[in-house]
Amino acid sequence: MKRLFSILLVLIILASLISCSNNENKDDGDSYESITLEKTDEEMFTDRDLSSYEKTDEAKEISLSDDKISTQGGGISVNSSVVTISEGGTYYVSGGLSDGMIIVDAPDTEKIQLVLNNVSIKSESSSPIYIKSCNKTFITVNSTENKLSNGGIYTQIDENNIDGVIFSKEDLTVNGSGGLTIEASVGNGIVCKDDLVIANLSLDINCGNHGLDANNSVRIKDASIKIASQNDGLHAEHSENEELGYIYISSGQIEISSLGDGFDASSNIQIVNGNIKIEASQNETGNSNKGIKADGCIQIENGEITVISQDDSIHSNTQINIMGGKINLTTNDDGIHADEILNIEDGEIDIIKSYEGLEAHTININGGKIVLNSTDDGINAAGGNDQSGFGGEFGGDNFQRPNRPGAPNGMGGGGMASGSSDGSITINNGEIYINASGDGIDANGTLLITGGYTVVCGPTQGDTAVLDYDVSGIITGGTFIGTGSYMMAQTLTGENQGVYSVSTGNQQAGTRITLSDLNGNIIFDYTPNLSYAIVILTSEDIVKGESYTITVGDLSGTFEAQ
Fold first, then answer.
1. For a designed S-S bond to 233, which of 177, 258, 286, 396 qualifies (C-beta 3.0 to 4.6 A apart)?
2. From CA 486, how far away is CA 10, in angstroms rounded?
């Protein structure tokens, strides 16, 4: 076997070359306060939101027909093909209208329940169901086949700008054990100017704008929802109150194909559970094409989420908390992006394709399993906001790297200064596998690893590195395996364990690496799936000052761990 002498160089970066790695974390820029969302089902849903319906003698009846609309009970008036409800109570609706509508116009103290039993209503120029005034309306689907549709225009009939197949000025719950189909070539599926609850039923929406659109909140539990929309699938926006305009998903099946964002909230998004599939496709309108997007915090607690998106798969202008679940992401931009804080506590995250895998100002990984593939950086603590909202194929990354400390032979110092090096990446636990065509881990500030199992597989081409940090890169516990380019190389400083860093010369993908102690005990056995020119190995089994033998393909050498 050949021995590694000049081909296998000694330590990539000596500790003396990275004196700044022992600096305290910088705090020159903004600091952000981490939050946890704590809404519960008890707060989000009433018993009546979730209850089923059985017809009683107290229910009033509306039988729809183009020939004649028949009614039984008070509080109902009919004018041609328009039915107006003006009193509280339960209304059992059946039949159909080829061009008509139901209007709820009752005192704001009254609750209205519309029970749909095989109902088909089309309005050529307005909403089939228009809720103008009441305290709260329940639209309960009591059969498998119910359909509401619009003919392609919305003609204003009063002071309200009606723009949805179901349009409600008040709180609205759509529930039941049956199914409802909503179709509109223009406008929205369901619009609610207060709180919108979708529970239990099967709902299928095909619309020209947003699928579900609410001012205060969209709340979903145990529903099966399918939306094909020309804009956002779920849209919650309040222009005046930053605590409103949120989305809460308790459970259910949600499938969205949108030409805008899958979910879009001006406040927070909390996903407690559920099976969610989102495809946010690019179109010529210039809409944002993110999977799950919020101005506020996004918190995923459990469930199974699959996103295919042109832009970021999960994006927050503030904070993201991943607390569990199975998340599969495919995107031409960032897999998960938060302008401020990204906390990953648990769960399984598979980023199949991305420009950058994980990006935030502050990244904390405390558990879970992460497998990510990126055409640029794998994990990036950006040190600032993503001003463009479009990275990757949409115009590049706005975060520029400042000069690097400790690059060997004077190399690696030619990057463009970002003006901010206060970002941080902290890995306390979990399994992380990074396959990156850019930097594996890029901290525009500090990198700290205290535990877990982290593998970085980077390329040898271009201005890339396994590790790229501006202030410090410290490991106090856990395992780290890194392979990639020599040109911009940096390594870790081990406080409680040795770090083994060597240059191997250019090696082909699939060239096996083993590290053994002098007694022949194998500590590492790893085969990178990309070509490489350096190897960084550290774990609690490597002791500073002791020598180890590394074998790379048919090359071998013995060196001391730092």
1. 258
2. 12
Neighbours of 393 (CB within 10 A): 14
Rounded alpha-carbon distances, angstroms, from residue 515 to 9, 47, 396, 502, 547:
15, 62, 38, 11, 10
pLDDT score for 488: 80
Q: What is the torsion angle, in degrees rounded to the nearest 10, for the CA atoms of residue 196, residue 200, residue 201 and residue 206?
A: 50
Contact call for residues 221 and 45 (beta carbons, < 8 A): yes
Q: Is 16 helix (H, G, I), strand (E, B) or coil?
A: helix
Other residues' Cβ atoms within 10 Å of the Cβ of residue 409: 9
Backbone angles phi, psi at 408, to 5 degrees: -70, 145
> Which residues have CB under 8 Å from 13's CB, separation 6+?
406, 407, 408, 489, 490, 491, 501
Q: Is residue 158 part of a domain?
A: yes
Residue 135 resides in a domain: yes
| CA–CA separation, 96 and 84 (whole Å) | 15
- Residue 353 · residue 330 · CB < 8 Å: yes
> What SS3 state is found at 322?
strand
Residue 223 near residue 241 (C-beta atoms within 8 A): no
pLDDT per residue as tens digits for the range 288-330: 999 999 999 999 999 999 999 999 999 999 999 999 999 999 9
Q: For residue 420, what pLDDT is reported?
A: 56
Query: d(Cα 326, Cα 334) in Å, to the nearest integer?
Result: 18
Answer for the pair 209, 188: CB distance below 8 angstroms, yes or no: yes
Strand order in the sheet with 513-516: 2-3, 555-560, 547-552, 513-516, 522-526
DSSP class per residue in 512-560: -EEEE-TT--EEEEE--SS-EEEEEEE-TT--TT-EEEEEETTEEEEEE
Residue type, 233: G
Beta bridge partners, 72, equal 61
- The total of structural domains in the chain comes to 1
Using alpha carbons, select from 381, 400, 379, 490 the residue that is nearest to residue 446.
381
pLDDT band at 20; cut points 50, 70, 90? very low
Q: How many Cα neighbours within 13 Å face the side chain of 480? A: 30
- CA 291/CA 405 separation, integer angstroms: 37
Distance of CA 538 to the CA centre of its chain: 32
CA-to-CA distance for 328 and 326, rounded, in angstroms? 7
Distances in Å between the Cα of 260 and the Cα atoms of 277, 282, 283, 310, 534 are 14, 8, 8, 10, 43
d(CA 463, CA 377): 11
Structure tokens belonging to residue 343: 């906390």
Domain that holds residue 155: 63-209
Q: Which of 420, 419, 428 is nearest to 447 (CA)?
A: 428
Give the pLDDT of residue 538: 96
CA-CA-CA-CA torsion sign (378, 379, 380, 385): positive
Distance CA 46, CA 326 (A): 29
Classify residue 360: in a domain, yes or no. no
Question: What confidence tier does 30 reach under pLDDT thresholds 50, 70, 90?
Answer: low
- Could you tell me if residue 163 is inside a domain? yes
DSSP 56-79: -TT-EEEEE-SS--EEESSSEEEE
Token pair in block for residue 274:
């559920």
The Cα–Cα gap between 467 and 485 comes to 10
Structure tokens at 317: 């202008």
